[in-house]
Design brief:
99 residues; alpha+beta; 4-stranded antiparallel sheet; two-stranded antiparallel ribbon; 4 helices; 6 strands; ribonucleoprotein; rRNA binding
Length: 99
């Protein structure tokens, strides 16, 4: 996988209360990913960017909510979420990986 595709696959970490609990207790991390990304591409992107070993990847398509606006009904964009399970002893530190 070329380096350009790696940066297009992972859009960023998904920070939520549930994602924080997964990271603390089960060594699982949640990312927003491109909607056309496959599990294998996501695995390779995480392994190359963070120098960790991935055990398995779970993905979920999240449908955008319908919202009411002053101009009528609107809809948020659909997006894809990936839950990354790391092998025992592995950890992702977002503070040090940004440097």
């Amino acid at each position: 996988m070329n380096q350009e595709r790696v940066f297009k696959v992972l859009l960023g970490p998904h920070v939520s209360e549930k994602a924080t609990l997964l990271a603390d207790k089960k060594s699982q991390f949640v990312f927003k990913v491109a909607t056309d990304a496959t599990k294998l591409e996501i695995k390779k992107a995480v392994e190359s960017l963070f120098s960790v070993k991935v055990e398995h990847v779970t993905t979920q398509n999240v449908l955008g909510k319908s919202k009411r606006t002053a101009r009528g009904l609107g809809k948020r964009n659909d997006w894809k979420k990936a839950v990354i399970s790391l092998q025992p002893g592995q950890d992702i530190d977002f503070a040090s990986s940004a440097e």
